[in-house]
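Backbone-to-sequence.
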């Protein structure tokens, strides 16, 4: 099992930026594809972005393309999500998760992930 802890959430004005981090411990971080999901108030959890084990391949939800960047540092066992041009609709609890999926483009649903962090709140004010 890999344990995941998110950080970096907070309150930001529309148009601002935040960088989320996800620290991993336990099993070898580089053995897993990783993803970011979010759950807006009153809505289901939705896919944001995913990254391959090496970091060489990434995949984004349409809502994240051009504004968010997923990256990882396997030496530091850390996953990142750089979020720019934030909108009020980006308000949600953001979760990182680990997947054993082979193809990152298929790891876009929660059922593809087997370990989850506790989440970090992102609030974007208008």
């Amino acid at each position: 099992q890999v344990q995941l802890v998110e950080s970096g959430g907070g309150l930001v004005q529309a148009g601002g930026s935040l960088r989320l981090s996800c620290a991993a411990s336990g099993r070898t971080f580089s053995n897993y594809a990783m993803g970011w999901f979010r759950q807006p108030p009153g809505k289901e959890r939705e896919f944001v972005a995913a990254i391959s084990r090496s970091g060489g391949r990434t995949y984004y939800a349409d809502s994240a393309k051009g504004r968010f960047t997923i990256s990882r540092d396997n030496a530091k066992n850390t996953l990142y999500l750089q979020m720019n041009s934030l909108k009020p609709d980006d308000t949600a609890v953001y979760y990182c998760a680990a997947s054993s999926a082979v193809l990152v483009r298929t790891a876009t649903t929660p059922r593809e992930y087997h370990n989850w962090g506790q989440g970090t709140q992102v609030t974007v004010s208008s």
